[in-house]
């Protein structure tokens, strides 16, 4: 009996170990593919930023159009936003049965919204715009770093990413209670994208923010960014739900996002930020940054930044020799040093501030006249707009430095190694080690950091000697049963208490089975989804894989070793996955340890081939580029109508042709755009855009 018990115990331990190994491999697949997609997003926007830097508009019309298309909302003027948010002109029909809002909001309004969204009702566009208008007014009054105290409430509840999953928000409120004077909440960004009900989540959170401004706090996440929304779904969601007023609503959301606070501080001891920190993170700088100037954190406009540096240098009394990189005398440039009157003494702060504003404005007007920039263009961030009576003597930071501060706190991740390095996995932010955390906490007298930004299987995870806590509130993020969601509650002692959950009923049932000791169904379901996504990724890189395999097939036998297969796959996909462990799920067993790679790739193609019978090479290219193509389409589709006008296409083609050194006349561009407009309705929809891409790839 004793020997039998030992054997059973050994068998069970091996069984659990195998399940854990499968679970970890599945998780690595999901996370690697997600981060690779974020890399593609940043590379795509870097490409467009490069095009913008190299493109020289031939007329003011082209300059205005390109600015509107690719510099969407960099700086909205109040008059433009008031016109955009003209909710009073929108009539609500008598047939509308959804919730009706009146301001100031009351708790009953929030309850009505919750009930309406549970019943799949939609809030009328008038009320959405009105809510966004009031939310924006409130957010503009808030500092960059919100301060919360546990003295005024029993505890503070911190929630992580929700990503458009409304069921998770409902479950949090069901378990923990609605926001109230005794129930404070901090929602740590990434409310939108990926899920299908991002808009409803924002409406609910904004409503509670206005009802309980001292108890509800919202931080900005990396997905509260209109350039990210173009790729990950929020833009599409808004336009589908509000076809008539969607463009107005979307523009208001873009501006509201940039006014969200950047961080929250609890009892001066716990800092809550969405992503993380770097070795250059400076809370003093973050407190003073004009956060509304960074509508998209992904894009840093180098051309306009470089034109701003001389202005800052002049104000600080610095100078730079007018020489190029080779030491030759550079072309004449404008001197931004004051030429009219001598600067007054800084002892008289009011007089000095007025003189500074007037001097810089005169130089800006001169620049505008020389480069033919109209006054109607959006204003750039200038030092004069940052100067106030309270900070004339404060240091002046470049926009590049400010941008990096925000980028780091929204995009960074912790790592177990010491130091701080670029986050090449995501493509933005950095990786920071425990030593960076320790120095940061010591510098600002903090106990620990709370961040989100990363999906965790249990919904939360400590690292860096329990000094960094990751909290993630979107359960079933990758697949039903893939992960739990969680939120954390902090009392006056600042001891974290966690609550975990899974919102989906199916996942809940699977979890009950798991508690009974049979987690196979759960793991198999999630594992199947992960490997399906991985096979799609492999198929999308068929051509590159063939080239990599041939490098190991010197005799051209069509066969390579499984070890070489694993090395070649990683060299192409660069996902950092344990391919030798995964090969059992991806490659059929072979007797001699050799793989016929052409037949293996043919099997992948058979799995992915659609009912349209598209040839494998075309399908491969579309699988690899569809997400990028869709993002490019939405960028060109400046008004988010779902259609690209001839003018939008023509101006975009000029941008591309300037980069590719292709000379094409206006008549030639017109012929090109008409050939893509297959149904001859005067616009290009996404199907026509994709079809044109396929036809081009078919040509020999």
From TrEMBL:
PROSITE patterns: EF_HAND_1, EF_HAND_2, IQ, SER_THR_PHOSPHATASE. Its EC number is 3.1.3.16. It comes from Falcunculus frontatus (Eastern shriketit). It is an enzyme of class 3 (hydrolase). The gene is Ppef2. Pfam families: EF-hand_7, Metallophos, PPP5. CDD domains: EFh, MPP_RdgC. Coiled coil: none annotated. Belongs to the PPP phosphatase family. Residues 305-344 are annotated as: Disordered. Residues 540-575, 624-659, 664-699 form the EF-hand domain. It catalyses: O-phospho-L-threonyl-[protein] + H2O = L-threonyl-[protein] + phosphate; O-phospho-L-seryl-[protein] + H2O = L-seryl-[protein] + phosphate. Its cofactor is Mn(2+). GO terms for molecular function: calcium ion binding; Hsp90 protein binding; iron ion binding; manganese ion binding; protein serine/threonine phosphatase activity. This is Serine/threonine-protein phosphatase. One of its GO terms (biological process) is detection of stimulus involved in sensory perception. Keywords: Calcium, Hydrolase, Manganese, Metal-binding, Repeat. InterPro entries: Calcineurin-like_PHP (IPR004843), EF-hand-dom_pair (IPR011992), EF_Hand_1_Ca_BS (IPR018247), EF_hand_dom (IPR002048), Metallo-depent_PP-like (IPR029052), PPP_dom (IPR013235), PPP_phosphatase (IPR051134), Ser/Thr-Pase_EF-hand_contain (IPR012008). SMART domains: EFh, PP2Ac.
């Amino acid at each position: 009996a004793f020997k039998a018990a030992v054997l059973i115990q050994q068998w069970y331990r091996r069984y659990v170990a195998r399940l854990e190994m499968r679970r970890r491999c599945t998780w690595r697949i999901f996370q690697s593919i997600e981060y690779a997609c974020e890399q593609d997003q940043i590379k795509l926007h870097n490409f467009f930023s490069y095009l913008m830097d190299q493109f020289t508009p031939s007329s003011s019309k082209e300059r205005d159009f390109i600015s509107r298309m690719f510099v969407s909302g960099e700086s909205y003027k109040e008059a433009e936003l008031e016109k955009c948010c003209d909710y009073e002109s929108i009539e609500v029909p008598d047939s509308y049965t959804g919730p009706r809002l009146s301001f100031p909001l009351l708790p009953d309004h929030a309850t009505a919204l919750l009930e309406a969204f549970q019943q799949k009702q939609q809030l009328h566009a008038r009320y959405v715009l009105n809510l966004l208008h009031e939310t924006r007014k409130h957010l503009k009054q808030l500092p960059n770093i919100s301060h919360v105290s546990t003295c005024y409430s029993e505890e503070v509840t911190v929630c992580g990413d929700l990503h458009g999953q409304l069921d998770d928000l409902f479950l949090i409120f069901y378990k923990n209670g609605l926001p109230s004077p005794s129930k404070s909440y901090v929602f740590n960004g990434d409310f939108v994208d990926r899920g299908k009900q991002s808009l409803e989540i924002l409406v609910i959170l904004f409503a509670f923010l206005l009802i309980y401004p001292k108890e509800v706090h919202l931080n900005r996440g990396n997905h509260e960014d209109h350039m990210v929304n173009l790729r990950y779904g929020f833009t599409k969601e808004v336009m589908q739900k509000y076809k008539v007023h969607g463009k107005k609503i979307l523009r208001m959301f873009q501006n509201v996002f940039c006014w969200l606070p950047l961080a929250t501080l609890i009892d001066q001891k716990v800092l809550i930020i969405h992503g993380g920190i770097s070795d250059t993170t400076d809370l003093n700088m973050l407190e003073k940054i004009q956060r509304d100037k960074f509508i998209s954190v992904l894009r840093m406009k180098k051309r306009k930044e470089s034109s701003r540096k001389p202005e800052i240098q002049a104000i600080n009394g610095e100078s730079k020799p007018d020489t190029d990189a080779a030491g030759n005398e550079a072309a004449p440039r404008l001197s931004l040093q004051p030429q009219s009157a001598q600067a007054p003494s800084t002892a008289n702060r009011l007089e000095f501030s007025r003189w500074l504003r007037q001097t810089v404005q005169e130089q800006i007007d001169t620049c505008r006249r020389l480069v033919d920039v109209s006054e109607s263009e959006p204003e750039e961030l200038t030092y004069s707009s940052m100067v106030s009576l309270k900070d004339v003597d404060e240091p002046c930071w470049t926009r590049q430095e400010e941008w990096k501060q925000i980028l780091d706190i929204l995009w960074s991740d912790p790592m177990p190694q010491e130091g701080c390095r670029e986050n090449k996995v995501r493509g933005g932010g950095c990786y920071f080690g425990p030593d960076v955390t320790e120095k940061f906490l010591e510098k600002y007298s903090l106990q620990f950091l709370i961040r989100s930004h990363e999906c965790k299987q249990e919904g939360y995870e400590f690292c860096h000697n329990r000094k960094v806590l990751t909290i993630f509130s979107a359960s079933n993020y990758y697949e039903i049963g893939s992960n739990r969601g969680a939120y954390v509650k902090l009392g006056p002692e600042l001891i974290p208490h966690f609550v975990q959950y899974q919102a989906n009923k199916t996942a809940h049932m699977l979890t009950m089975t798991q508690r009974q000791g049979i987690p196979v169904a759960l793991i198999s379901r999630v594992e199947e989804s992960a490997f399906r996504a991985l096979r799609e990724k492999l198929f999308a890189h068929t051509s590159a894989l063939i080239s990599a395999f041939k490098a190991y097939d010197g005799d051209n036998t069509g066969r390579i070793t499984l070890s070489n297969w694993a090395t070649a796959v990683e060299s192409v996909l660069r996902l950092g996955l344990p391919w030798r462990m995964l090969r059992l799920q991806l490659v059929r067993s072979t007797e001699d340890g050799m793989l016929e790679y052409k037949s293996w790739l043919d099997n992948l193609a058979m799995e992915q081939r659609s009912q349209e019978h598209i040839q494998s090479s075309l399908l491969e290219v579309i699988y690899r580029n569809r997400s990028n193509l869709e993002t490019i389409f939405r960028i060109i589709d400046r008004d988010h109508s779902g259609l690209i006008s001839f003018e939008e296409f023509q101006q975009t083609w000029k941008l591309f042709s300037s980069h590719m050194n292709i000379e094409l006349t206006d008549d030639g561009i017109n012929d090109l755009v008409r050939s893509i407009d297959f149904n001859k309705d005067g616009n290009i929809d996404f199907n026509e855009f994709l079809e044109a891409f396929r036809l081009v790839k078919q040509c020999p």
